[in-house]
């Protein structure tokens, strides 16, 4: 208990690419947590993918000691957080483990969509927010605009801002002093029983699950029995320790401490982010607030490019699942693509990152089917089912209504692109609920859009319309009843499950025609005429023909009556008809792969 008043727990929140990880590097250097000799850029980002894209995917806590100007030595626990909307739940849990937050604003970009979203998350958790204007040494920095936006949009007084640069180390001492003086000491330390919050966990092949925890009250040490409050599961604590920034074993974790716990638990699924841990022999009466189960929002099929790689893909997914409990998968098979897996992800970036890691870390070339979301289908008779794969949609005659998930988006754009942005939102079946002028040059649109409309190209088109100056943040909205239909693609009368999709009736014809054209182009020529059709129920809405190979049967006719040629052509026609009755179209898998690649 003695050092709890001298402990400060804080995190860094910002929009993507505003310099969170670089700033944390400077803080580690300044407090001599890491010596210059072993320091690397983006020290807390451990994956190659994180370094390459400049994004943080997994959080990395670290404990620093700082001798402040008041003569006391403080223990500072920093939690680095992901900035992307897919990982919003992880961000909210790491905020729950802190009392303060450094809110970074890029001096050249100003306040962006996720800056606002993350700031509101921090305010909602009751955190003390310290604004830091980063990258002030850039030639394009515009401090007046940043301070004005901060007051107008975030309602934080301009005099609270600290000017800094993570790259050149300006303002680092001021930031540490502000953390010590402005961030309150750990809360809820006087709660009668022991409680700690799990804000992350990872799997270690030798030691099982290592949970990253923040202790709120009481102490935890090796040899004690702990209990997970969401499931009631009990387990013995094998080891406790802190991050400096590597794992360092210590005898006890007390109130306000951030560290790790190694227990008997061997699966990440059992110890979930946001869970409360207490002592098994004297459990707490209530959990820490804010725990919820995380459910996948986007589904797609993953298939190996070479069918021999199926087992390799299975191993890759099971290993990724060990460290990422929000990824779910189940095996499925497709006539066109063979054996593969149906996978669920938190969002589009999560899907992209998982696919990239499978390719890189496990060396499996994969192809993914068109992403889809979870639809709620109400049948006649009141039964309600959830569908994540278009193939499982029941017969149209039994369906009363289909609801689709929506998102509430906050889109920041420069004024001159407002008209084009409105058109894009309307094209995606969305509606603008509210527009607000942020300053002389930027506006913020609050829009509601169907989730499945933004899956593929929305963000790319937002960036190209606004020349890269637009940004978007979204949260999940409600389910909304919509006129949705299942569109099948049929080749020679047989439906191909890899291309089945659930689309809005108004867009079905255009999408069907584009897909048929593409497929007819890619499928190699056949001996007889083959139709590629898009159908809704029993109604064909688009059609194209695959090129047919024709032998020139009239080549041996030199002159003579036309009826000789006609007779040979009719005979060929009859043969083609017979062939069509018994013939099967063999479509090479790479034809599907080409279509799916051009689609995605």
Task: Compute the CA-based radius of gyration.
Answer: 29 Å
The mean pLDDT is 83
Rough outline: elongated
Per DSSP E runs of 2 or more residues, the count of β-strands stands at 31
**CATH architecture level-2 label of the largest domain:** 3-Layer(aba) Sandwich
Strand order of the largest sheet: 2-3-1-4-5-6
Largest sheet properties: 6 strands, mixed
Would you identify the CATH H-level superfamily of the largest domain?
P-loop containing nucleotide triphosphate hydrolases
* Ends distance: 55 Å
Number of distinct helices: 13
The proportion of strand residues reads 25-35%
- Ranges with pLDDT <50 over ≥5 residues? 43-47
Relative helix content: 25-40%
Structural classification: alpha+beta
CATH class of the largest domain: Alpha Beta
The CATH topology assignment of the largest domain is: Rossmann fold
How many domains in all?
Answer: 5
């Amino acid at each position: 208990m003695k050092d709890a008043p001298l402990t400060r727990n804080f995190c860094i929140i910002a929009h993507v690419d505003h310099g969170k990880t670089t700033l944390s590097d400077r803080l580690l250097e300044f407090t001599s947590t890491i010596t210059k000799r072993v320091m690397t850029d983006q020290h807390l980002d451990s994956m190659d993918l994180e370094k390459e894209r400049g994004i943080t995917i997994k959080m990395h806590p670290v404990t620093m000691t700082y001798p402040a100007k008041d003569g006391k030595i403080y223990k500072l626990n920093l939690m680095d957080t992901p900035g992307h909307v897919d990982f919003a739940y992880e961000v909210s849990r790491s905020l729950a483990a802190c009392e303060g937050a450094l809110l970074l604003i890029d001096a050249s970009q100003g306040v962006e969509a996720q800056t606002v979203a993350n700031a509101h998350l921090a305010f909602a958790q009751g955190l003390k927010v310290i604004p830091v204007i980063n990258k002030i040494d850039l030639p394009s920095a515009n401090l007046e605009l940043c301070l004005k936006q901060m007051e107008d949009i975030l309602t934080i007084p301009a005099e609270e801002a600290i000017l800094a640069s993570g790259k050149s180390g300006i303002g680092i001492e001021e930031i540490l002093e502000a953390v010590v003086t402005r961030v309150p000491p750990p809360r809820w330390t006087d709660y009668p029983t022991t409680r700690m919050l799990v804000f992350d966990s990872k799997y270690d092949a030798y030691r099982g699950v290592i949970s990253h925890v923040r202790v709120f009250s009481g102490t935890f040490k090796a040899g004690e029995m702990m209990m997970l409050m969401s499931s009631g599961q009990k387990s013995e604590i094998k080891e406790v320790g802190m991050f400096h920034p590597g794992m360092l074993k210590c005898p006890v974790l007390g109130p306000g401490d951030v560290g790790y716990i190694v227990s008997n638990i061997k699966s990440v699924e059992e110890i979930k982010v946001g869970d409360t841990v207490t002592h098994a022999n004297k459990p707490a009466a209530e959990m820490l607030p804010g725990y919820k189960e995380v459910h996948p929002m986007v589904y797609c099929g993953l298939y190996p490019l070479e069918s021999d790689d199926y087992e390799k893909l299975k191993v890759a997914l099971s290993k990724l699942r060990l460290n990422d409990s929000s990824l779910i998968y189940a095996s499925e098979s497709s006539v066109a693509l063979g054996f593969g897996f149906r996978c669920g992800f938190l969002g589009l970036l999560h899907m992209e990152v998982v696919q990239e890691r499978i390719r890189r870390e496990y060396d499996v070339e994969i192809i993914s089917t068109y992403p889809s979301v979870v639809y709620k289908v109400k049948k006649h008779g009141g039964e309600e089912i959830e569908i994540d794969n278009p193939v499982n949609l029941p017969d149209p005659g039994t369906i009363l209504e289909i609801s689709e998930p929506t998102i509430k988006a906050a889109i920041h754009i420069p004024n001159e692109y407002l008209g084009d942005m409105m058109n894009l939102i309307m094209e995606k079946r969305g509606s603008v609920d509210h527009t607000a002028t942020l300053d002389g040059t930027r506006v913020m649109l609050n829009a509601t859009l169907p989730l499945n409309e933004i899956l593929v190209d929305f963000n790319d088109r937002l960036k190209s319309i606004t020349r890269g100056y637009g940004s978007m943040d979204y949260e999940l909205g409600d389910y909304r009843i919509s006129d949705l239909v299942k569109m099948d693609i049929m080749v020679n009368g047989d439906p191909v499950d890899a291309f089945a999709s659930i689309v809005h009736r108004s867009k079905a014809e255009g999408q069907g025609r584009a897909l048929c054209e593409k497929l007819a182009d890619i499928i190699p020529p056949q001996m007889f005429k083959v139709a590629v059709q898009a159908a809704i129920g029993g109604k064909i809405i688009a059609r194209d023909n695959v090129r047919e190979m024709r032998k020139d049967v009239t080549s041996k006719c030199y002159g003579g009556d036309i009826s000789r040629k006609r007779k040979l052509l009719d005979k060929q026609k009859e043969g083609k008809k017979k062939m069509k009755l018994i013939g099967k179209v063999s479509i090479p898998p790479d034809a599907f792969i080409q279509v799916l690649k051009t689609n995605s």
